[in-house]
């Protein structure tokens, strides 16, 4: 059974930082791409960042570029999202995803809430 478990969300003031973590279990994830998505109240889920299996290729949404950094753990079954210079518009539930390729992220976590106050 595939499981993705996110952690690290919380309440932070604008300009602050948070680090989200996601640990995968149940399959061999060391060759899987992983990514982060988010969904704000009343909005559709949107792409935030992805990283390939080796960690050598990353892609970011324009809205977070230069502020967020995605990375993988040494064991490749974990992914992190370092979020700096947070803005109120970053408030959302953040979801971790994994799959055989960046375009095939078919496994999802249950999400972690990030709230940025102004």
What is the rounded distance between the termini?
40 Å
From the helix content, strand content and strand pairing, which structural class follows? Answer: mainly beta
Low-confidence stretches: none
What integer value in Å does the Rg equal? 13 Å
Beta-strand content: over 45%
Described by strand count, sense and barrel closure, the largest sheet is:
7 strands, mixed
Tell me the number of helical segments per DSSP (H or I, 4 or more residues long): 0
Would you kindly provide a written description of the structure presented here, covering whatever features stand out?
The chain is mainly β. It contains no helices and eleven strands. Strands 2, 4, 5, 6, 9, 10 and 11 form a seven-stranded mixed beta sheet that branches. A four-stranded antiparallel beta sheet has the order 1-3-8-7, with no helix packed on it. It is globular, with a radius of gyration of 13 Å. The termini are far apart.
């Amino acid at each position: 059974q595939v499981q993705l478990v996110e952690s690290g969300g919380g309440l932070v003031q604008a300009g602050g930082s948070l680090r989200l973590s996601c640990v995968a279990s149940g399959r061999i994830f060391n060759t899987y791409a992983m990514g982060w998505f988010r969904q704000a109240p009343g909005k559709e889920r949107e792409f935030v960042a992805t990283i390939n299996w080796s960690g050598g290729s990353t892609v970011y949404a324009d809205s977070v570029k230069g502020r967020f950094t995605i990375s993988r753990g040494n064991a490749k079954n974990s992914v992190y999202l370092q979020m700096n210079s947070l803005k109120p518009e970053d408030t959302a539930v953040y979801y971790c995803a994994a799959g055989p390729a960046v375009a095939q992220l078919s496994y999802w976590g249950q999400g972690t809430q990030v709230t940025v106050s102004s």
